[in-house]
Amino acid sequence: MSKKNNPSPQQNAFVFGKRNYIVMFIGLGVIALGFILMAGGGSDDPNVFNPAIYNFQRIRLAPTLVLIGFGIEAYAILLNPRKTK
């Protein structure tokens, strides 16, 4: 005779802690800032070249911010929510 295992009722709990979500939102903000800095730089007239598309902000700063934001997201996922100080 086998006993049936009655699963205990699960609590509706979040996967991550409050600290994880705060760090995730910071990472999303950094990623969004990077994409905002990449935007623009186009020309109204397609026959005129606008060299502003190759400035430091769009070529170096914005992609760096996006990569840093992805790093922050990875850190937020790996952060232990149960660790106390």
Automatic annotation (TrEMBL):
It comes from the Bacteria. Pfam families: DUF3098. The keyword Membrane applies. Keywords: Membrane, Transmembrane, Transmembrane helix. This is DUF3098 domain-containing protein. InterPro entries: DUF3098 (IPR021448). The chain crosses the membrane at residues 21-41, 61-79.
